[in-house]
Amino acid sequence: MSAKIIDGKAFAANVRAQVAAHVARLKEVNGLTPGLAVVLVGEDPASQVYVKNKGIQTREVGMNSYEHKLSAETSEADLLALIAKLNADPAVHGILVQLPLPKHLDSDLVINSIDPAKDVDGFHISNVGLLGTGQKAMVPCTPLGCLMMLRDHLGSLSGLNAVVVGRSNIVGKPMAQLLLGDSCTVTIAHSRTKDLAEVCRRADILVAAVGRPEMIPGDWVKPGATVIDVGINRIERDGKGKLVGDVHFESAVAVAGAITPVPGGVGPMTIACLLANTLTACCRAHGLAEPEGLTA
Ligand SMILES: NC(=O)C1=CN([C@@H]2O[C@H](COP(=O)(O)OP(=O)(O)OC[C@H]3O[C@@H](n4cnc5c(N)ncnc54)[C@H](OP(=O)(O)O)[C@@H]3O)[C@@H](O)[C@H]2O)C=CC1
Ligand SMILES: Nc1nc(=O)c2c([nH]1)NC[C@@H]1CN(c3ccc(C(=O)N[C@@H](CCC(=O)O)C(=O)O)cc3)C=[N+]21
């Protein structure tokens, strides 16, 4: 038996179509156009590609995209001044500061200077606290995309054993909160976890967010489990550059019930959820009904 492949690319196209339809209505009925500002500091090539893709997809769904590219030497004061300006700009409903930032900048300070209502990444401490207490928040895009795919595939997640490998603030921890919110029994594993293989084998839902190419082999996967591979790792194979996840796909696909591929799994959903969050932020800012099915 081979696992069902969860097509994140197709799923994301569907989410973007829903966002586009809602944006068109907002324009027609309310005369509003949601706007997303993306701030990139430095010249990291991978980040430049992501930011460019975000800009293209933002315009495709009918939103305004504002791109701010700053030099790697930008001072903290200048970056904070730009964020203050974006916070005060009524045309900007969402603000994303691409991470990681250059080392001389304090990313916690920078993120916490974003207006929480415009924090479409869901990284501000207010949004982290709201999510952790089950209140209405802006939810981080990558975990939100994973949750949408899990609900679509499994229906109810209630009572299932979920294991999240990775405890970062941007993926692992918020993912665990969302799974807990859907009544999973949640285990968060990390680099100090004892017998990770055994922990993973208990998972009905296994989420890998580690950043180590193909580290989770098929024999760590419970037969029939749903595997969500968040990892994006660029490797060299047969003299060619290749993108692989944190899960060893070929061996896991033979055991799992369903699995997301890399590329074409979680990645496209992350950008689709960023657009969904920007739409949600715009609706909330204007006291309008929120899009259904696009929030946690
Ligand atoms: N698809 C998408 O849209 C996105 C993909 N990513 C990708 O997801 C991956 C994770 O990203 P991110 O969360 O930012 O990464 P971080 O480096 O911030 O966190 C990695 C986590 O993995 C844990 N870890 C490291 N080595 C091991 C190990 N041998 N065994 C068990 N756990 C381990 C670390 O544990 P400890 O805390 O103990 O150090 C840490 O908690 C990356 O490949 C990244 O590129 C990220 C964001 C979005
Ligand atoms: N403030 C902030 N928010 C983020 O959400 C954020 C960030 N910083 N920094 C970097 C990570 C990484 N990330 C990805 C988004 C899309 C793909 C994606 O679309 N991947 C495609 C492949 C793209 C390719 O070919 O390179 C896929 O998996 O199919 C991947 C990774 C968002 N991140």
Descriptive notes:
Keywords: Amino-acid biosynthesis, Histidine biosynthesis, Hydrolase, Methionine biosynthesis, Multifunctional enzyme, NADP, One-carbon metabolism, Oxidoreductase, Purine biosynthesis. NADP(+) binds at residues 166-168, 232. The chain has helices at residues 8-30, 45-60, 76-88, 107-111, 125-132, 141-154, 172-181, 196-201, 249-252, 266-285; strands spanning 4-5, 35-41, 64-70, 94-97, 161-165, 185-189, 205-208, 226-229, 233-237, 240-244, 258-259. The protein is of the alpha/beta class and 296 residues long. The relative contact order is 0.17. 5,10-Methenyltetrahydrofolate binds next to helix 2, strand 4, helix 6 and helix 10.
Care to give the gist of this entry?
This is Bifunctional protein FolD. This protein has 296 residues and is α/β, with parallel strands linked by helices.
Give the quaternary arrangement of the chains. single chain
The Cα radius of gyration reads: 19 Å
The SS-based structural class is alpha/beta
Count of alpha/pi helices: 10
CATH fold group of the largest domain: Rossmann fold
CATH class of the largest domain: Alpha Beta
For CATH, the homologous superfamily of the largest domain is named as: NAD(P)-binding Rossmann-like Domain
Question: In percent, how much strand structure appears in the residues?
Answer: 15-25%
Number of domains: 2
Order of helices and strands: EHEHEHEHHHEHEHEEEEHEH
CATH architecture of the largest domain: 3-Layer(aba) Sandwich
Distance between termini?
A: 32 Å
Ranges where pLDDT stays below 50 over 5 or more residues in a row are none
**Helicity level:** 40-55%
List how many beta strands DSSP finds: 11
Largest sheet: 6 strands, parallel
Mean pLDDT: 97
EC number: 1.5.1.5, 3.5.4.9
Catalytic activity: (6R)-5,10-methylene-5,6,7,8-tetrahydrofolate + NADP(+) = (6R)-5,10-methenyltetrahydrofolate + NADPH; (6R)-5,10-methenyltetrahydrofolate + H2O = (6R)-10-formyltetrahydrofolate + H(+)
InterPro entries: Aminoacid_DH-like_N_sf (IPR046346), NAD(P)-bd_dom_sf (IPR036291), THF_DH/CycHdrlase (IPR000672), THF_DH/CycHdrlase_cat_dom (IPR020630), THF_DH/CycHdrlase_CS (IPR020867), THF_DH/CycHdrlase_NAD-bd_dom (IPR020631)
Function: Catalyzes the oxidation of 5,10-methylenetetrahydrofolate to 5,10-methenyltetrahydrofolate and then the hydrolysis of 5,10-methenyltetrahydrofolate to 10-formyltetrahydrofolate.
